[in-house]
Automatic annotation (TrEMBL):
Any single biological process term in GO: sensory perception of chemical stimulus
Top-level lineage group: Eukaryota
Bilayer topology annotation: Multi-pass membrane protein
Source species of the chain: Caenorhabditis brenneri
Family of this protein: Belongs to the nematode receptor-like protein sre family.
Transmembrane segments: 22-44, 56-76, 96-122, 143-165, 171-194, 232-252, 264-287
Official protein name in the record: CBN-SRE-1 protein
GO cellular component terms, A-Z: membrane
Major site of localization recorded for this protein: membrane
Localisation per UniProt entry: Membrane
UniProtKB keywords: Membrane, Transmembrane, Transmembrane helix
PANTHER family: SERPENTINE RECEPTOR CLASS EPSILON-1-RELATED (PTHR23128:SF139), SERPENTINE RECEPTOR, CLASS E (EPSILON)-RELATED (PTHR23128)
Length: 353
């Protein structure tokens, strides 16, 4: 059984000094988790307030909430690692582990599947946004988000069971996740190019379509959203590659026997990288597109949290008065209604002439 568990309260004498350092680091990790809960809530808040389609918002929230699954599992595991909760020597020798430790490891493996699949999930959603571009913004089509989330829940659950009970090598599963991230990036790139080319074709008036204005608006929104998601997908892929290497090394029994000290530090580095994930994801989400950045900085809650950190770098954005009446979705609807009205006026003038 592969457990995400590396005890540091009792170590062989030859590596006791290193275990002491990891022991302190683990306490720091526990403290970081306490601050991580409200920090990641800011990411969720930014996602809810974002001008994304219902399906993209739902999928994003579903994947982001999976991070709290990891925090619960990792918090319990840390208590075992520092000795706050203990396994009897007899049970550990017979590989009989508490159900709480087994479940916590399962939760962590489940989140690893979510981290690898989030880029593919948003790529699938953008595929449907491209396919139904004419009416995607006007219809929720909730079945898309339900389909994607249910399939990924089953896939992440199966991958967690496979990794926990060692049905397949950890290294094979880790690099399968990297392959999925890379494949989703190229799939996403193809969708981006398709949307961009179609928008250029419409702008050059090569298509005689009375709904050209509507399609142009939807394609522009697609490209703006995909600019943000492109950065998320790239970061997710690079992050998954680095963490797959670390996971494969410290979970390898032969490597652990040959380099026990290195495995201790790799184990801590892996989990700490997951902790940093939310902070970096927040930066990517807010700073990728200027329109979204201006809007997020106009929200009072975000201004209070981020101004002490990045206020000097983005003074122009922070000078924007707080939004009090319309959400960005309402502003988008108003803008689209204005464009539609202009189109109707031009169409009427054309008929009269």
């Amino acid at each position: 059984m592969n457990l995400q568990y590396s005890p540091v309260f009792e170590c062989p004498p030859e590596i006791s000094s290193h275990c002491q350092w990891i022991y302190y680091f683990t306490h720091f990790e526990l403290l970081a988790m306490v601050f991580e809960v409200p920090s990641f809530l800011l990411v969720i808040y930014a996602t809810i307030k974002s001008p994304f389609h219902y399906n993209l918002t739902f999928i994003g929230l579903f994947m982001l909430l999976g991070y709290y699954v990891f925090l619960v599992g990792r918090f319990i595991t840390c208590l075992y690692e520092i000795g706050a909760l203990r396994i009897s020597d007899e049970n550990e020798a017979n590989e009989i582990y508490p159900i709480s430790l087994v479940i916590s490891s399962l939760l962590q493996f489940f989140y690893m599947g979510c981290a690898c699949g989030i880029s593919l999930a948003v790529a699938f959603e953008r595929f449907f946004a491209t396919y139904f571009v004419d009416t995607y913004e006007t219809r929720k089509r909730k079945w898309i988000s339900l389909l994607v989330c249910s399939e990924f829940t089953v896939a992440c659950g199966l991958s967690a069971i496979i990794m926990l009970f060692d049905f397949l090598p950890i290294s094979a599963m880790a690099f399968l996740g990297v392959f999925i991230s890379c494949a989703s990036f190229f799939f996403y790139l193809v969708l981006f190019i398709m949307n961009k080319r179609r928008l250029q074709t419409i702008q050059q008036e090569r298509v005689d379509d009375m709904y050209t204005l509507s399609v142009r608006f939807q394609l522009s929104e697609n490209l703006r959203v995909m600019t943000l998601l492109r950065n998320v997908v790239i970061f997710s892929g690079v992050n998954n590659l680095v963490m797959a290497i670390m996971l494969s090394l410290y979970m390898s029994k032969s490597f652990k026997e040959s380099y026990p000290v290195t495995c201790l530090y790799l184990h801590f580095a892996f989990n700490f990288c997951v902790i940093l994930y939310s902070f970096i994801m927040l930066i990517i989400m807010v700073f990728s597109v200027k329109q979204y950045r201006v809007y997020f900085f106009s929200l009072r809650f975000v201004r209070v949290v981020l101004y002490p950190l990045v206020g000097r770098c983005f003074q122009n954005e922070f000078m924007t008065p707080p939004v009090q009446q319309l959400t960005i979705r309402d502003e988008t609807d108003c803008y689209f209604s204005s464009l539609s009205l202009q189109w109707d006026e031009k169409f009427d003038k054309f008929n009269r002439s």
